[in-house]
Amino acid sequence: MHEMAIAQGILDIVLAAAAEHDAAVVRRIKLRVGEMTEVEPDALRFCFAALAADTPAAPAELDIEVVPLAGRCQDCQCEFAVARYRFFCPVCGSADVEIISGRELQVEHLEVD
Ligand SMILES: [Zn+2]
């Protein structure tokens, strides 16, 4: 399951950060998750809760911000939201599009006690 591997990666980061700050409990984890990762927030919460049981991150609430997919045309430099994975510039029709957001998967902020 896709979300299980991602949840494990997040837990590793969170537990390392908690240990570094001598935190007994992690209260809240703010995540930025790109649309392109195709992470289902509810599935991610479920997997995280299962993996985090018996760790300092067990009571943590996941605050998940989904970052929409956006591209930049390499021909006319316009930036646009990519809907339904159609990587074509809406202005000039070019297919030479660079993805500028929507692939992120990062722990942005932690609240610990
Ligand atoms: Zn263009």
UniProtKB/TrEMBL annotation:
Ligand binding (Ni(2+)): H2
Keyword field: Metal-binding, Nickel, Zinc
Source domain of life: Bacteria
Keyword Zinc among record annotations: yes
A single BP term in Gene Ontology: protein maturation
Cross-referenced InterPro entries: Hydgase_Ni_incorp_HypA/HybF_CS, HypA/HybF
Binding site residues for Zn(2+): C73, C76, C89, C92
GO molecular function: nickel cation binding; zinc ion binding
Keyword Protease: no
One Pfam family, short name: HypA
Database matches in PROSITE patterns: HYPA
Function per UniProt: Involved in the maturation of [NiFe] hydrogenases. Required for nickel insertion into the metal center of the hydrogenase.
Similarity-based family: Belongs to the HypA/HybF family.
Name of the molecule in the record: Hydrogenase maturation factor HypA
Record organism: Thermosinus carboxydivorans Nor1
Gene name of the record: hypA
